[in-house]
Amino acid sequence: MKSGNEETNAASGTNAPRAASKAPAAQGTSAAKAASGTNAAAADGNGMIMDGRIVELAPDERDRGIVRASVVGIVANVLLTAVKAAVGLLSNSIAIVLDAVNSLSDAAASGITIVGTKLAGKQPDRKHPFGYGRIEYLTTIIIAVIVLWAGIESLQQSVGRIITPEPADYDTVTLIVVAIAVVAKIMLGLYTKRVGARLNSGALVASGADSMMDSIISAATLAAALIYLLCGLSLEAWLGAIIALIIIKAGVDMLREVLSKIIGERISPDTARSVKETVASVDGVLGAYDLMLDDYGPDKLWGSVHVEVPDTMSADQIDELTRRIQRKVYQRCDVILHTVGVYSQNTKGGVAAEIRAAVIAYADADPYILEVHGFYAEEDQHAARLDLVVSFDADDRHAVVAAAKEYLEKRYPGWSFEIALDSDISD
User: Is the pTM of this model over 0.70?
Assistant: First the structure.
């Protein structure tokens, strides 16, 4: 996307030609970025905006839903652990005993989820003004480590049985118990994952995935038992080793996903598009740029954005506009914009319009310039300011900006150009 305006101006009625898809009708000034930002008081993800102010609400149904699902998981897994352990010890089946250990680890994971949810729901304080939502990511890490531990332990036990095999003693009751455990684990896994997806709880989704892995273990144990009874061939140790590797991979995947969130991922295209379109739909906004969102836990997004407004707007009009933007974005996108910065757009034509067109043409010809915004020309001072969003694919992003500056100053002798390098942080 090369335009700061092509996408975001649809709702505000400002339509730019193809060239402006790289250089928006956005004509602001870097200096104005912070000059008129509206800062909101700290609040957690359960906050809302009233008349431009962010206020706090009581914890919503999300936390209660996570706790309910976790309690169901604890009860189910404790029962499964007791039954599997008894059957496994009586039948001398290492696979069933390890299955019981897995169920016990799932019960522990559900308990950790409850504790994490309670801690994450704490109200913001002076030390943590953005709340404790990221604790949920830490609980997901703990669950991932539990899954890894279960997988590694299962692998060790299975390899031990491969080296020194011991015959198992299966009977009809054993097979029925294992079959019931398979069905129970599948139902529990599907339920937990569904609730986790609905409530956007990474810890619940991870627990559900772990339960599904356990159902595969139980199914493999059942298959190995049947093969042993029918053919006299003992495969449970080999199947246990294969399943252990699958569990280890699942744990690694969980860990990689949650660490990526903690490090800081790119804003999802759908979220970025939704916020920008909502901002641009507010009457008086000519474009939305520089969207930055910080993740303070599931469903807890805080951020900032810059908007382009006519240079004829007064300070009180801008103040009222930024409050309307904050309120509308929260209502539609559930995102708290704590700061709305401003770019000023030239409302007169003349040389400013000519230079802007030249900037657009240059940007369109450079494959590494993804967007131009914040353009503003002061004709009496022969000075212009603008921001260039340069792709991370460029070998030297600063060189791209330097080349643009050199081109413009040669084309317009006597003019100075202040060009800020912007990063491609959102779609």
Answer: no
